[in-house]
Specification:
homotetramer, Arc Repressor Mutant, subunit A, Tetracycline Repressor, domain 2, 2 domains, two-stranded antiparallel ribbon, 2 strands, elongated, DNA-binding
DNA sequence: AATGAATGAGATTTCATTCAT
DNA sequence: TATGAATGAAATCTCATTCAT
């Protein structure tokens, strides 16, 4: 997972010019801490409201109230509502890529990596962060073209991660895949399965208690799929 | 596919309630034809505009213009914009279920049915009806709770169809699946794969020329997955 | 004054397609009358509020209230607030051009035309329509680029009218002006005098009782100026 | 030009009240110089931005950036944005009055003073300071009542200057003007001509290369006007 | 049945100004 | 003095929906 490190974006970096100096004054340091804290507060408040009430219902005023800041402050940290959603998406997708990527790495890109990534997705990410799930797969859909472009980039990166893991896997096992597109197709398929399984069993109904079984079966399905596209 | 026949919904028209088909005068018949024609015109106009410009961008006025009726007439045939989308979704999902279901039936619920359903989805439905694809998987997302409930029902039916095919398949082959949930999980997985493969290769990029390969690999992945969850 | 007839602009001309038919139904005729009446009501309300309270202070809501329509109706007739101002400017400038132009024509482009145009401007237009005066010379200034462009076009037309009158005048008198630019410079000067005399004596202070004297002196100044730039 | 000396206004600085110039320490002197330098920087930055981008577009933040100070500092030197504009107007009008006034004085209030004042206005002020021109005649229009009042005072002073020059001129030439208001009317007319000629030929279009001709014709028009209102 | 002008609630967004540090 | 993050009032504008004709 080479480019996992994504730069955190912030609207203005006027202060960062002084941050280049090696030592910030105590005041400046505290200010910076507070700024980052506020930035995170707003993202958290937005995450909760977007997930609970939907992107359209969650007005900027209510997000501001919920984050205990003024509406103006929202617009100081984020250009507009769209921008807020996009940054939220970035943050969530960054976390998810780290989560999955570290499983691939831990297992040294063996089949076990694919397996544990699946388990971690369903049993960690989905169960612990249903809000992130809802934003990634539900609330960020059907918005503006800009958000859609951003979604595409995010999913392209996730797909690239999985695709790379699959290619390393085949290298390790001295296997080839059926066609030149197979790795990409499998990566897209796996993410499609993740998405709709999570949507079906956690967003549309609450089968969180059976997540273990769901996770096991889904992973087994994936492994069967991969094997069936592998050639010696 | 037992309940494939879905009742066509139409606002109960005041004239049709008093007149059964057999005893309609010529004038009344022509009127009914015109009514149905308008109904379809509106749905078609909405389908095109929702797909091309997005649900939010497609204002009721533009839909009316495009269908060559007045805004008022839109509201005569459909309760509101949401209702228009819901009826469109119904129509599209009905067509898709018929398409997939007939493949299952033709193959007598053998593995071939799963295979040909996949090919038909990618090579017929997706390629020939990109607008329907966009509405089913893109434009109907992130709307109101009511639309979301409707989506759930539609997908539940699609899942039930696939699940039934999978169960009949296992009966035919005297096999069992790994767990009680396996059939449902596989059905959801398959539809999730359909959805994101189509989204990735047709909505986000145009790989329509490689649809044959994509279709083949995806179906192979599915068959591998099914086999891996089957026990003698 | 050749192109005095300016087409009245209206947002949509959907109805005008039926207006091409020679005979509108009574209903359609009444509707059209009502539409034009509303359009004028809104312009009148805006004229009053823009002049009395200033363009920025006059909110769309208050204009709507004042015209006894809803805010939505405002936006049905005019694209936005800017558009409302621009149409108002057009209407006012059209009236002013007609007023001045008819004086030039009545006097057959003699010096008397210049004289009576001045008197009519100060003693008719300024005294009877202080609101139009305020909008033309005060409230439409310092707004957006689009409004400024419109102002330029309006003043260019007024200048062209006066310039043409001056050129015909010199033709009639078998005279030439000092330079090639003289006619334009004089036209601009005359309008600049009109503007600031009106602004000074009617907008900044109320010398309406002395308007006769002011008018007489100003016209005398203009005639002296013209003569001084004329050569046999 | 009796009251040409206009007091420079500055928010009474807390240090200057306790320290008269004579007894200022070196540090205090340097501070005062810095203060005045900042004050001028801000005015210059505002002048440029107001003229180039318009009063409304030029936000306080951008003015601060441009002057290389913080927003807070802006508010230390000027009460608010309006106040900044008003001080800028004062400065500009002071310069203009000095320019015109000195021409009147140099020519000892003869007709030549009127002539050279015109030439200096068009050929010096307008050509060299287009930003000042734009602020005086364009950007300061259509703002708040307070700015408008200020404009009135500024123009009243300019009018009074010209009016005084005209009166002294008539005294020198042993002439009378047509009416008691004539001098005022001519002064207003002349300034109106200045304004709109400059606006038309320099702000709305760039005829700077023909400024000599324009200036000559305009001055000739003015002299003709003055003569026509003079009685022996 | 069909029309289309009128409605108005509700959302986003801006930016001059303040004030704790 | 200087800073710049925080404020929040106030404005514009959209568009699904209604209803008299």
């Amino acid at each position: 997972m080479p480019d996992l490190i994504v730069e955190k974006k912030m609207k203005k970096s006027k202060t960062s010019k002084s941050a280049e100096k090696k030592s910030l004054s105590k005041t400046a340091l505290r200010r910076q801490r507070e700024r980052e804290h506020r930035y995170e507060s707003i993202l958290s408040a937005a995450e909760l409201l977007f997930a609970r009430e939907g992107y359209l219902q969650a007005s900027m005023e209510r997000i501001a109230d919920s984050a205990e800041v003024s509406v103006g402050t929202l617009y100081f940290y984020f250009k507009n509502k769209e921008d807020l959603l996009v940054h939220l998406l970035d943050k969530i997708s960054f976390e998810l890529r780290e989560l999955l990527g570290s499983e691939f790495i831990k297992a040294d890109f063996s089949l076990d990596g694919i397996k544990s990534a699946g388990h971690v997705f369903f049993e960690e990410f989905c169960l612990k962060c249903p809000e992130k799930l809802a934003i990634l797969f539900k609330e960020s859909m059907g918005r503006s073209n800009l958000v859609e472009e951003h979604r595409k980039q995010i999913f392209d990166k996730l797909i690239a991660d999985v695709q790379e893991a699959l290619i390393r896997l085949s290298d390790n096992r001295k296997l080839n895949y059926q066609s030149a597109l197979s790795a990409e197709i499998m990566a897209v398929s796996i993410l499609g399965m993740y998405e709709r399984i999570a949507y079906h069993f956690l967003i549309w109904q609450d089968s969180s208690k059976e997540m273990k079984t769901i996770s096991k079966d889904t992973v087994a399905f994936i492994l069967g799929g991969i094997n069936n596209l592998s050639r010696q």
